Amino acid sequence: MPASWLSIRVDLVSGRGRDFWPRPGRIFAAAPTHTFAALGREIDRAFARWDHSHLHLFTLDDGTELTTTQHWDGEPPDGARNDVTARLSRLGSGEQFAYVFDLGDGWTHLCTVGERHVDPLVWAGSAPPSPVPYAGWGDLPDQYGMRWYGDDGQARAPKRPPRTVGDLPPILPEWGR
After folding, report:
1. Which residues, given as ranges, of the chain have pLDDT below 70?
2. Which of 1, 19, 61, 101 could form a disulfide with 107 if both were Cys (CB 3.0 to 4.6 A apart)?
3. Considering only CA atoms, which of 118, 158, 149, 157 is closest in space to residue 135?
4. CA-CA distance, 110 to 21, in Å (whole number)?
């Protein structure tokens, strides 16, 4: 298979009122036949989002907006196109566009199509059915800003106990007894 897949760099710019620097990011390989909806789903997975019930919106550099139109309670933005049918083949090398997940918390991403195409057979051994990240960096914030979630449903971290012999099960040699 020739190197015909797009390489798309995705940088997390901001979310929940916070700007990120350095920006965490991922690089995806995506076939031109993949849809924007599929890319959005894989971006959310790669950025550790676990509640996928929120709306999202792509904005291309020409102002075109793409979203999953049937999920809106009211009307989607005027002129928005359905990202379930819009294919990535419309993107060109060097093109930049934005992806926003959860329009309330505003997880915004800058997406940049690489100058070179990639061959999924080289790094994956096959052509994955959806876009897939093949490189990444940075600390990923929790979708809701939680740093802990206890068995009791509380989002407060417990007091850290002193590290003692026996506070971990003896699964690894340095743990347990």
Report:
1. 1-2, 71, 146-158, 163-166, 176-177
2. 101
3. 118
4. 13
Residue 159 domain flag: no
Contacts for 13 with CB less than 8 Å, ≥ 6 apart: 19, 20, 23, 108, 109, 110
Residue 70: DSSP 8-state: G
**Assigned token pair, 89:** 């083949």
Euclidean distance between the first and the last CA atom of the chain, given in angstroms as a whole number: 53
- The total number of structural domains in the chain stands at 1
**What is the extent of the structural domain holding 110?**
6-137
Res 92: pLDDT:
96
Q: Which amino acid is at 104?
A: G
Determine the pLDDT at residue 155. Answer: 63
Residue identified by tokens 């031109």 is: 32
